[in-house]
Specification:
Rossmann fold, two-stranded antiparallel ribbon, globular, SAM-dependent_MTases_sf, S-adenosylmethionine-dependent methyltransferase activity
Length: 248
């Protein structure tokens, strides 16, 4: 089973929005001004890209390989430049960006070494790269594993674990800065927007498990939603910060 990202784009914005907590973390860690060039690598339909443009005076650029995703982003008319590109070719000159980030993207990249080489090329010296992803431990702790256990191995095969990401980045010139982990640890009933996300297969992992596993999990999820069963949320995210060093 593969993922058709152009097909996924048709329903993507129905259930996927920017996470303002992530945006806030960028703003807390990075100085942005009118002279700042920001790259959203793998921007999808531009939710994070557009949010950063609204909240800063920086020039914000999105790069996305899937045509339908990119066209949806362009249609939002936010003054952001959206370009076709991928891990092998980011269509900008050397040393153009002051900051680059990717949110829930790295597991879609078939060759992270090629990606890091390109990101290193387009970033200025002393600039930062932030990768927002999940460790294998966090994947195992997702609350929806209760409903869709088949997603665990599927996702661990796709997601490079944090040490692997750091090793690849370091080999390709980056310097490790820090890791920030957001730990979700609370209980509440299943939210309607999450149920809608699952019904629309808004996470690509739902396209990679069997239809039987998906339908069984969805039925159990709907049942718990109707009963307002409280679920423990505890998986969180990992923010991996890297830097392109200044050359002597």
């Amino acid at each position: 089973m593969g993922i058709d990202y152009n097909e996924l784009a048709k329903k993507y914005d129905l259930s996927r929005k920017e996470n303002m907590g992530t945006i806030t973390r960028f703003l807390e860690n990075q100085p942005f001004s009118e002279e700042t060039n920001i790259l959203d690598f793998g921007c999808g339909t531009g939710n994070f890209t557009c949010a950063l443009k609204r909240m800063t005076d920086a020039s914000v650029y999105g790069v996305e390989p899937a045509d339908e995703m990119r066209q949806k982003a362009i249609g939002k008319n936010t003054g952001v430049s959206f370009e076709k590109g991928n891990h092998e070719k980011i269509p900008f000159i050397d040393s153009f960006f002051d900051f680059a980030y990717m949110t829930d993207v790295i597991h879609h990249v078939p060759d992270i070494n090629a990606m890091f080489k390109e990101l290193y090329r387009v970033l200025k010296q002393d600039s930062s790269l932030c990768i927002v992803t999940e460790s294998h431990k966090q994947i195992e702790s997702r609350f929806w594993v209760k409903y869709f256990p088949a997603t665990v191995e599927v996702e661990k095969e796709r997601y490079p674990d944090i040490p692997e990401i750091i090793e690849s980045a370091t080999i390709n010139g980056f310097v490790f800065s820090k890791i920030e982990i957001t730990d979700a640890n609370h209980r509440h009933a299943i939210a309607q927007n999450f149920l809608m996300l699952v019904e629309n297969k808004g996470y690509s992992m739902f396209h990679l498990i069997s239809n039987e596993d998906y339908e069984r999990g969805l039925a159990d999820l709907r049942n718990d939603y109707d009963k307002q069963v409280e679920i423990e949320y505890r998986h969180g995210e990992t923010f991996l910060w890297l830097k392109k060093p200044v050359k002597d």
